[in-house]
Amino acid sequence: MTERVFDSLIVHAQVATIAGSAPHCGSAMREIGLLNDAAVGIIDGNIAFVGSSQDAAALETKECLDARGRLLTPGLVDPHTHLVHSGSRENELAQKLAGIPYLEILQQGGGILSTVHATRRASREELIEQALRSLRTMLLWGTTTVEAKSGYGLDVPTELLQLRVAQELRKLQPVEIISTFLGPHAIPPEYQDRPDAFLEQMIQLLPAIQTEQLADFADIFCEHGVFSVVQSERFLEAAQKAGFGLKIHADEVEPLGGAELAAKLGAVSADHLLAASENGLRSLVSAGVIPVLLPGTSWNLRAKPARARFLIDTLQAPVALATDYNPGSCPTESLQFIMALAANELRMTPEEILTAVTINSAHAIRQAHRVGSIEVGKQADLCLFNADNPAYLVYHFGINHIADVWKKGQHVVV
Ligand code: NIG
Ligand code: FE
Questions:
Q1: Is residue 351 within 8 Å of 29, Cβ to Cβ?
Q2: Closest Cα to atom 12, ligand 1: which residue?
Q3: Tens digits of per-residue pLDDT, 135-169?
Q4: Does residue 409 have its Cβ closer than 6 Å to ligand 1?
Q5: 206 shares its domain with 250
Q6: Ligand nearest to the CA of 303
């Protein structure tokens, strides 16, 4: 082992390895494999050593960083965002503060549809530029892998453009992007009276997206006044046949049965779940669907948060957390802010939260074989925090605790 020359070695860190290949369920979410005075070595972009700083002293390395007892975690994984879009919706703040519900703003042609108008008008360059700014923020705040949905085109050219922009963004900056086709995100104005015809158009688009390898997942907004459970099943079944992994915006506002549908179809994740029925939650956990909770959205919409404690304690679920970054229901790129909300709003412990933004969120986008934990052979995606314990990260909220970030072994935030 000593003949190998390491590219980088990080020593004297408190390492949260969050190791283990399966999703971390229930009480196991609190086992973060904390190693005191530990070292992590990197060769060719991958983790090649995890052990004590004492053992690492014998290793030869080109670079060495002394973490001085601070917390080293896997790079954060954000498994649910609406990254590529144009504009912002602060013009809706007054309506929101006046108590007009989210779905009513959408019904009046605002909300998602207002972003659809802006996105359809934007050029490819404008979409790239706005998303690059968000990705830069994400990286500076510790996110090294992100899922990105389409869904602000609601027509063939703009949906494809959003997905192609996401593909191009991979080459322009370090954050890894996993794409999801969310064509049925709302009913566009030109199809208001013919939602089934719109859905059919989105179904017809699936093979082209698959052939061009523009997305790994397909998703739908299953919600009262948007797409029903029957329509969602039709779309998701077609997507599954076409080879996509399934995701679903489920039971965000009304207990419509999205959670039950996710279980029935064996979705990879079911996201939101604020209003999901107890039976729905039970069946999705039994079916191995990852519940992705989005406490930024419930907080921002001033809705009752999802039942994280029930999921973790009673159902022994592998909960994951995400930002849901989008210009309407949750305009933040910061997973660290979501982590603070997960403590305060969802009553999750700091250890559960770390697990939910690393290995479990990696499972929610089927990337856990490469990212989400600090283990030999995995990609060297790492965050060093200006914190010496996990509780400090969520307790001292609203600021950026990142000291350094590595992506594929590259020291991208110094
Ligand atoms: O996950 N609920 C549907 N979609 C997004 C919000 C998108 C928007 O408001 O622009 C969500 O909350
Ligand atoms: Fe969303």
A1: yes
A2: 329
A3: 999 999 999 999 999 999 999 999 999 999 999 99
A4: no
A5: yes
A6: 1
